[in-house]
Amino acid sequence: MEMKVKDVTALLNVSEKSIYRWIKSDGFPYYRINGQYRFSKAEILEWATENKINVTPQLMHDPAPENMSSYTVSNALKNGGIHYHVEGKTKEEVVYNTVQYMQLPDGMDRETLYQFLIAREKMGTTAVGKGIAIPHVRNPVVLHVDKPSIALCFLDEPVDFDAMDKEPVKILFTLLTPSIQIHLHLLSLLAYMLNHEKVRDLLEKCAKREEIFKTIKEIELSAISG
To answer: What pLDDT digit, counting tens, does each position of 61-77 carry?
Structure first.
C-alpha cells in the first residue's frame, strides 16, 4: 500500500477530516496495516472518478521521475485512437472487439492481450461509474509496450460491467503502459479529465475525434499554465 492519509489529502485536495469520514462510509478503499491506514493509488483514483471527486490539477505539472510530465492523456489517446460503434452484448465481447480496434505494437498478440484484460476484469470490475470503464492489465510490465496508449471506444449499446452504481457501460478507455508508474500517472490524469464537465459533455454526445482531442489538449495546457 503506497499511500498514507496525507498523500490522499494531497491527491484529492481535501482535508484529513474528509478522508476519515469517507473511511467510515461504505465503498471507500483502504487497508489497515499495523493500526495505520494505507491506500492503493489506483483504487483511490477509481473511487474518486466514480464519485465525481476532483483530482488536484497540480499533478499536471508536478515534477516527476523519469520525465513523467511528458506522458499526457492527449498523447496516449493519439497512440490508442478513438473508435465508434464497437459492438458486443457482454463484457467479454466488447473487450474482445475493443482489442481488435486497438493500434498495437508489432509482435503483440491480440488474443493474449484480450486474456490479460479479461483476467483483470475477473478480479474486479474496471467500471468507474457513470457508464465508463477503464480496462487495463494487472501488471503492465508483462505487455512489453514501449509507449503508453489509451484507446477510447464508444460502444454500440450499453453493456453490464458489474459497476457499483449499477449503470451499464457505454464508454471504454483501455489503458496500456510500459510500467506501473506510468500507468498510475496516466490514471491520475484520466481521473482528472473524467471529472471535467467539458469532457463529460463530449463523451455523452459521442463527439468527433477532432473535438475530443482539442478539448483535452486545451484542458492540459490550462492546468499546466494555471
So the answer is: 444 445 667 789 999 99
Question: DSSP class of residue 39?
Answer: B
User: Contact, 127 vs 161, CB < 8 A?
Assistant: yes
Catalytic position from the list 61, 83, 85, 136: 136
Pairing of strands 149-159, 82-86: parallel
C-alpha cell at 110: 491480440
Q: How far apart are CA 190 and CA 123, in angstroms?
A: 21
Domains recognised in the chain with CATH numbers:
5-56 (no CATH), 65-225 (3.40.930.10)
Q: Among 200, 189, 146, which residue's Cα sits nearest to residue 57? A: 189
Residue 85 bears catalytic tag = no
Residue count of the chain: 226
For cell 482528472, name the residue: 192
Q: How confident is the model at residue 80, as a pLDDT?
A: 93
Residues paired with 32 in a beta bridge = 37
Has residue 153 got a pLDDT over 50? yes
Q: pTM for this structure?
A: 0.74
Residue 79: per-residue pLDDT: 93
Which of these, 226, 118, 137, 127, lies nearest to 180 by C-alpha position?
137
Average pLDDT over residues 168-188: 90
d(Cα 224, Cα 226) in Å, to the nearest integer?
5
